[in-house]
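Exercise 7b. Backbone tokens:
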């Protein structure tokens, strides 16, 4: 983390979990557990259907409600999809773009990710853009080249001012939902590499302003070590964000890391 230059963000990705009723129960359970110190932004990205329920239940708390995806077009004949403007209109700020599950199951590509980022920025949303290598790609030793390609394609066409509004989440696919976390050193190496790519394309000021999160089996046991790394500015958390006590602890973690 480096709170002098950029935000620390602890974001949950609920994926396809919890009904509206369970969402409200989660909110009631976590509210009394939330730390008062504000060393990070706290976000939970929930299924579109439950955004309104989550907003209502978390109103007045420090947790912001985000979305898990959006469509790149502003409107039109795209049955089942939702546009950036619709999310902005109901008060959503953060939206996850290009999660590996969206890439794997819904044919999202680096090119559609680029278009979705454009749509999000145009609607004044903050995109959390997911990138990461598969196990085979890591075994081949091509992760640095791959990550550079993914990030550079994703942010193609963005001005430096727009780049600063993008959040990147490094999520190695082999660490998602597997209980297998990248070591803090492995995650730091890639997050620093991503920042170096942004520096090369833009400049040092832009690169140091971008928050880069780690995602992949992050939990209360490993978060402090990961967040202690200079280029890891938070987490995108799946499983552990579904448990009120665990997620409250994760929101508290940046302040603890900062205070040593
Ligand atoms: P897990 O924390 O469950 O591994 O999920 C990570 C993830 O995919 C967050 O987007």
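Sequence design result:
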């Amino acid at each position: 983390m480096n709170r002098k230059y950029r935000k620390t963000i602890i974001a949950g990705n609920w994926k396809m979990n919890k009904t509206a009723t369970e969402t409200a129960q989660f909110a009631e359970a976590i509210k009394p557990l939330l730390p008062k110190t504000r060393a990070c932004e706290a976000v939970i990205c929930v299924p579109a259907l439950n955004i309104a329920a989550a907003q209502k239940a978390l109103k007045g708390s420090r947790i912001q409600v985000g979305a898990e995806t959006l469509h790149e077009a502003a409107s039109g004949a795209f049955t089942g999809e939702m546009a950036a403007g619709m999310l902005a209109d109901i008060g959503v700020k953060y939206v996850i773009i290009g999660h590996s599950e969206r890439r794997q199951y819904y044919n999202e590509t680096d090119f559609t990710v680029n278009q979705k980022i454009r749509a999000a920025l145009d609607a004044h949303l903050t995109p959390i853009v997911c990138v990461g290598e598969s196990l085979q790609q890591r075994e081949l030793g091509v992760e640095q080249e791959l990550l550079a390609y993914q990030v550079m394609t994703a942010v193609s066409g963005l001005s430096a001012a727009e780049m600063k509004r993008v959040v990147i989440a490094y999520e190695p696919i082999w660490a998602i939902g597997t209980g297998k976390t990248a070591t803090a050193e492995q995650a730091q190496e890639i997050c620093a590499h991503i920042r170096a790519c942004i520096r090369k394309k833009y400049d040092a000021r832009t690169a140091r302003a971008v928050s880069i999160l780690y995602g992949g089996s992050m939990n209360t046991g490993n978060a402090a070590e990961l967040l202690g790394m200079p280029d890891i500015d938070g987490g995108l958390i799946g499983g552990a964000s579904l448990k009120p006590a665990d997620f409250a602890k994760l929101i508290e973690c940046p302040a603890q890391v900062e205070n040593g």
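Instructor comment: The mean pLDDT is 96. DSSP finds twelve helices and eight strands in the chain.
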